[in-house]
Amino acid sequence: MAAQDIIIRPVITEKSMSGMASKKYTFEVCKDANKIEIAKAVEELFGVKVSKVNTLHVRGHMRRQGRYEGYTPSWKKAVVTLKEDSKPIEFFEGMM
Q1: What does the radius of gyration of the chain's CA atoms come to, in whole angstroms?
Q2: Domains of the chain and CATH, by start
Q3: Which of 28, 45, 56, 59 could form a disulfide with 8 if both were Cys (CB 3.0 to 4.6 A apart)?
């Protein structure tokens, strides 16, 4: 699987932005990707060194639109911690 297929998009929330001070970046990733594949994809795409990867599955929530109801899609989230000597990811620099 290519690195672009593993990392789907960055997660931009207040909580994920506060983690940037300690070099933690949050991404939505492919559901069947493991931690090793995620670490290699981040290193390849952004040119940084990854210390560790934490993953979690986010469940879909029940939503209603009038009388119709359904679930939002479930997805997988990865919190990537960079090594101390690694440079920050430039993509997130303007957002702090």
Answers
A1: 15
A2: 3-83 (3.30.70.330)
A3: 28
